[in-house]
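debug: dumping io for the single-chain case to check the tokenizer round-trip. Nothing else runs in this session.
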Amino acid sequence: MRPECVFVRDCIARSQDNVEGKVQMSVFKGQVYILGRESPKSLYNEELVRLREYHRLSGLPGDQK
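debug: decoded output
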């Protein structure tokens, strides 16, 4: 196997070290629908999302991503 391939495979494997959780999905006529997901190690921070939304709606300066 080529060194580039080994490197990419190793990077992908390491990126999954901290991945855990559950995903609920529905499969219907060849389509997959995500119904919900949860993870004890989630990077999602609801406080940051609320703050960004507040800044956007109020016209305050802030991270506008």
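debug: round-trip ok. The mean pLDDT is 82.
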